[in-house]
Amino acid sequence: MGKLRSYTRYCGIYGIEFIPHGEWADPELRYGRYLLNYFDVEDEFVPGYNEWCKKHNIKETDDSFKSWMYAHRAEVKEQCKLLISLGCAERIPD
């Protein structure tokens, strides 16, 4: 596998990059020497976001979810670390 291009920071987190693969493949997150499925990370936060919306009487939208994820950056980073420790990430060869 060749070198990966640099992409945008995911949720503004230094060291976690969002890698889109177009319409027909799931995006990935690059964290260190690992690739994680974007949805494996994001799906973990949907229930908490939905609960927050209900509590604050806010309509669930993609934009408000994105803002909510930015506000929970530390938890996002910890989720990435957890998935790596559980073997749910692909190691990028040297």
Explain what this protein looks like in three dimensions:
A 4-stranded antiparallel sheet has the order 1-2-3-4. The chain starts with 15 loop residues before the first strand and ends with a strand. It has helices at 38-42, 46-56, 62-71, 73-85; strands at 16-19, 28-31, 34-37, 90-91. A hairpin with a 2-residue loop joins β2 and β3. The protein is globular. It is built from 4 helices and 4 strands; from the N terminus they run βββααααβ. With 94 residues, the protein is an alpha+beta fold.
Report the C-alpha radius of gyration, rounded: 14 Å
Instruction: State the major sheet.
Output: 4 strands, antiparallel
* Low-pLDDT residue spans: none
Query: Could you tell me the mean pLDDT?
Result: 91
Helical content class: 40-55%
Find the structural class using helix and strand composition.
alpha+beta
- Percent of residues in beta strands: 5-15%
Note the main attributes of this structure.
4 helices, 41% helix, 94 residues, four-stranded antiparallel beta sheet, alpha+beta
Task: Provide a concise account of the structure shown.
41% of the residues lie in helices and 15% in strands. It is of the alpha+beta class. It has a 4-stranded antiparallel sheet with strand order 1-2-3-4.
Helix and strand arrangement:
Elements: E1 16-19, E2 28-31, E3 34-37, H1 38-42, H2 46-56, H3 62-71, H4 73-85, E4 90-91
Antiparallel strand pairs: 1-2, 2-3, 3-4
